[in-house]
Amino acid sequence: GENVEQHPSTLSVQEGDSAVIKCTYSDSASNYFPWYKQELGKRPQLIIDIRSNVGEKKDQRIAVTLNKTAKHFSLHITETQPEDSAVYFCAASLGGGGADGLTFGKGTHLIIQP
Amino acid sequence: DSGVTQTPKHLITATGQRVTLRCSPRSGDLSVYWYQQSLDQGLQFLIHYYNGEERAKGNILERFSAQQFPDLHSELNLSSLELGDSALYFCASSVVSGAYGYTFGSGTRLTVV
Question: What pLDDT is stored for residue B19 in this prediction?
Answer without folding.
Answer: 98
